[in-house]
Design a protein that fits this description.
two-stranded antiparallel ribbon
Length: about 260
């Protein structure tokens, strides 16, 4: 067995990964709320934004956490095409989930289908991202712990979509995002607890890219996208806020002047 560590940079990577999970969840919830209130093209665009936010937020959380991952006796590389595929899988399956909720006629059934689809997509992203990992040796998994991590992903995704439909107000939505950040991060570290590594040193040069060559720049790029999109969505009023502002304006216009 190889000795593994998740804290190559101390608690910096767990804290940053949690922040990314919270940001992606908050942005996705906000966009889902907008989608429920909208129709036509606007609904579709908000759902697409929610899928991109949640999918890229979860992917970024995973690889920020992986920045601190190390194995004694071996370097670590990442297969670039598979790593990119893991991002696309995350966005695609989250998209299926939020569209199921956004366009479903039966809310309870749509929530279950959307939560299951999104959760399985999150788990697939995690283990596909792990499949992209290259080291001097082999990587295995404890099946029971893997099953627990998948269950956490499905429950977390279902809870996130439920919150998107039922949580109102920025304070409540912020609290839901904080809780979702805990759930998503827990899924990741539960999945990592399932990992076993057998190191076989001296096998030549590893294929793939290092964390700093590929993963880190992509994480920074997606993190910047999330922050900029979050700022745009936060500053963009909801349909209820626009209606309230219009009502206030009408009251001011109708008020007698002296």
């Amino acid at each position: 067995m190889g000795s593994m560590s998740e804290l190559g940079y101390g608690w910096l990577t767990p804290i940053l990964s949690y922040a990314m999970a919270v940001l992606g969840s908050a942005l996705g919830l906000r966009c889902t709320v907008r989608a429920v209130q909208a129709d036509g093209r606007a609904k579709r665009n908000w759902l697409l934004t929610a899928a991109a936010a949640i999918g890229s937020g979860i992917w970024t959380m995973h690889f920020v956490a992986m920045l601190g991952f190390s194995v004694a006796g071996s370097d670590i590389r990442y297969d670039v095409p598979i790593t990119v595929l893991s991002l696309l899988v995350a966005v695609f399956f989250v998209g299926l989930g939020v569209f199921a909720v956004g366009y479903g006629r039966h809310r309870g059934r749509s929530l279950l289908v959307g939560g299951l689809t999104t959760g399985l997509g999150v788990a697939a992203m995690h283990y596909l991202g792990m499949y992209a990992l290259r080291l001097h040796g082999s990587v295995g998994y404890r099946p029971t712990t893997v099953a627990v991590s998948v269950l956490i992903a499905v429950v977390a995704a279902t809870a996130a979509l439920w919150a998107g439909l039922n949580v109102h107000g920025r304070v409540a939505a912020g609290a839901a995002a904080l809780i979702m950040g805990v759930a998503v991060t827990s899924m990741h570290y539960t999945g990592m607890a399932a990992v076993t590594v057998v190191v076989r040193p001296g096998q030549g040069t590893l294929p793939g890219a290092t964390v700093m060559e590929f993963v880190f720049p992509l994480v920074v790029g997606l993190g910047s996208f999330l922050f900029l999109t979050a700022a745009f969505v936060a500053l963009s009023p909801t349909a209820q806020e626009r209606a309230a502002a219009a009502g206030a304006e009408q009251l001011r216009a109708a008020a007698p002047t002296h």
